[in-house]
Amino acid sequence: MKEFFIYQPMLDDLEETFRPMTEFEDIIRMHLKFGMPFPNKPKVLGEEMLEFRAKFLMEEVLEFVMASMMGDIGKATDALVDLVVVAKGTAAKMGVPWESCWDAVNIANMAKIRVDKGEGRNDFDLAKPPGWEHPDIERIVQENTYRFDPNED
After folding, report:
1. For residue 91, what are the CA distances in angstroms to 3, 45, 47, 65?
2. Cα angle 71-73-74, degrees, rounded to a multiple of 5
3. How far, CA to CA in Å, does 27 sit from each of 38, 65, 79, 120?
4. pTM exceeding 0.70
5. CB 115 within 8 A of CB 126
């Protein structure tokens, strides 16, 4: 069984797809363009890829912080977008169903509450109210393996 696969013929098909692609599909398309493989089932990154992707993510965070500290909105925004691209690319390399996971985390986050500034808190904190439940990402990953299909309705 192959550990990775590449969606070879789909790159041309994307040019004929008329529905707007999601950001995650844009990332898949970029990886396809450069012949980068994807796992055929969800998995954590191997040590070498993990090290590469972690450094890549940290580099973009640092660029964002530095640009923000310099007051450069253009460079800060560019770094922030790059950070999202790298994060979603990492998810693609893991073979996870990004949109399904995003939806579950968003629902859970929307169930949180705003808290008053108090000890160890700031004006930006949210809290988990009584009865709040974590999204079951493990189940989502196992049940909804990302399948990129440009012919999907």
Report:
1. 16, 10, 15, 23
2. 130
3. 12, 24, 16, 38
4. yes
5. yes
**Residue 41 pLDDT more than 60?**
yes
Provide mean pLDDT across the span 113-124.
Answer: 75
List Cβ neighbours of 52 (8 Å cut-off, separation of 6 or more).
none
Label residue 28 exposed, middle or buried (CB < 10 Å: 0-12, 13-18, 19+).
buried
Residue 18 binned pLDDT confidence (cut-offs 50, 70, 90): low
From CA 76, how far away is CA 99, in angstroms rounded?
Answer: 25
Which of helix, strand or coil describes residue 94? Answer: helix
On the question of pLDDT at 152 being above 50, the answer is no
DSSP one-letter code for 18: -
Instruction: For residues 6 and 31, give the distance between their C-alpha atoms in angstroms, rounded to a whole number.
Output: 9
Write the pLDDT tens digit of every residue in 82-91: 999 999 999 9
CA distance 92 to 90: 5
- For residue 2, what pLDDT band results from cuts at 50, 70 and 90? very low
Query: How many angstroms separate the CA atoms of 101 and 85, rounded?
Result: 16
